[in-house]
């Protein structure tokens, strides 16, 4: 879908509506503080996707395939598709947002990017920074498995080990950025501008049709919020006339977004001990954006067990020929739980990452289940 680059935008706090510039903050409201994210909004309706003028070198973009899943479709009496984000460079949907972040940093004259990450985001940033010959520093917990960092190191990222959790890494990277003037990358509003483009791809690939429901695994909530923002902007541009119903999937071992939706106040998770590691986030600061679209689309949510996800991932590979990481198989595992709500509908499952990322963890977990 065509993209128009425009200067008719503003960066606003979702709570107090205070306007910011990219230089002032790449993450949270400078007035309300941590936990109150910013959002990029457009003031004109251009008839297609709009992105800020400083992202004008974004093209060409890599698209991912939308594949029908005949076995799932027959089993659940629905038209079910997989949006294969594991096909993107470095094997995850993070590529979309990393590209917008790196380009922004370059166009606005920054000399370094810093990011707290333990996995997919760090590797995708590292690969794009390598291409642009741009310095990247990743803040990672000391306990991060070497295998997860190997590719980021290979692309030339500088690694700073932090004695603590991911939250501690986020605090240290914020301090580092304040001190050095580096560009802060992460699950923030510039990343969402890249991630939203998947909505246009889905509409094109379905022959100019909006699916009835989109099923998204959630950690921070940035991707779900961004995909729905994409559909919303297509409605604003009068390209389509509705947005899909949102279905949020989280692990039953780490589900602060679902807890928050059920209790009506934002919760944090007390533990993040799930095999679906890409969604293991204790403090989902984009909860507000997810809730907005759950409310607007009469959205639904469901929790899945690690065991059901391991089996769903194996089935997806064996019967539909798609190899994804465990977090990416969560929407497939969710189908059993939501089957009474999907009959005769068009459903898109967002498959977020590639199987090679946790293939040995999957194999070990599957052996354990089969030996029971
Ligand atoms: Zn604010």
Structure description:
By secondary structure, the chain is of the alpha/beta class. It has 2 domains: 66-92 and 194-370, Rossmann fold, CATH 3.40.50; 111-181, 3-Layer(aba) Sandwich (Rossmann fold), CATH 3.40.50.1100. The protein contains 13 helices and 16 strands. It has a 6-stranded mixed sheet with strand order 7-8-16-13-14-15, with helices on both faces. A 4-stranded antiparallel sheet has the order 3-2-5-4. Strand 2 and strand 3 (19-20) form a beta hairpin. The radius of gyration is 19 Å and the shape is globular. The termini are far apart. The mean pLDDT is 95. Bound molecules: zinc ion. Zinc ion binds next to loops.
Quick gist of this model?
With 372 residues, the chain is α/β, with parallel strands linked by helices. It has helices spanning 70-76, 94-107, 120-132, 146-154, 166-180, 189-195, 198-205, 222-236, 256-263, 287-296, 306-320, 330-338, 359-370; strands at 3-6, 9-13, 19-20, 28-29, 33-42, 49-52, 66-68, 79-84, 113-116, 136-141, 158-162, 183-185, 213-217, 245-251, 300-304, 346-351.
């Amino acid at each position: 879908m065509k993209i128009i680059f425009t200067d008719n935008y503003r960066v606003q706090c979702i709570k107090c509506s205070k306007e910011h510039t990219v230089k002032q903050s790449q993450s949270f409201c400078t007035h309300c503080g941590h936990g109150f994210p910013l959002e990029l909004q457009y003031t004109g309706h251009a008839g297609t996707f709009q992105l800020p003028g400083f992202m004008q070198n974004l093209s060409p973009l890599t698209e991912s395939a939308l594949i029908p899943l005949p076995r799932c479709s027959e089993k659940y009496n629905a038209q079910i598709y997989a949006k294969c984000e594991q096909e993107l460079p470095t094997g995850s949907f993070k590529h979309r947002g990393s590209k917008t972040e790196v380009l922004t940093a370059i166009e606005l004259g920054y000399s370094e990017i810093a990011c707290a990450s333990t996995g997919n985001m760090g590797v995708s940033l590292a690969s794009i920074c390598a291409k642009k010959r741009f310095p990247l520093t990743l803040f990672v917990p000391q306990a991060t498995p070497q295998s997860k960092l190997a590719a980021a190191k290979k692309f030339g990222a500088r690694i700073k080990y932090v004695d603590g959790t991911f939250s501690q890494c986020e605090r240290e990277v914020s301090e580092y950025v304040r001190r050095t003037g580096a560009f802060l990358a992460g699950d923030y509003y510039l990343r969402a501008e890249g991630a939203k483009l998947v909505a246009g791809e889905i509409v094109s690939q379905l022959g100019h049709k909006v699916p009835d429901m989109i099923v998204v695994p959630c950690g921070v909530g940035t991707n779900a919020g961004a995909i729905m923002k994409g559909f919303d902007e297509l409605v604003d541009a009068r390209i389509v006339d509705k947005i899909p119903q949102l279905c949020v999937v989280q692990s039953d071992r780490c589900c602060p977004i679902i807890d928050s939706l059920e209790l009506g106040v934002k919760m944090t998770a007390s533990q993040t001990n799930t095999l679906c590691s890409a969604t293991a986030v204790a403090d989902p600061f984009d909860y507000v954006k997810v809730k907005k679209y759950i409310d607007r689309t009469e959205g639904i949510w469901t929790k899945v067990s690690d065991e059901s996800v391991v089996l769903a991932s194996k089935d997806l590979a064996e019967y539909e020929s798609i190899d994804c990481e465990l977090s990416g198989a969560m929407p497939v595992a969710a189908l059993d739980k939501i089957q009474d709500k999907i009959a005769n509908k068009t459903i898109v499952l967002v498959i977020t990452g590639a199987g090679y990322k946790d293939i040995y963890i999957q194999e070990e977990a599957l052996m354990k289940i089969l030996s029971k």
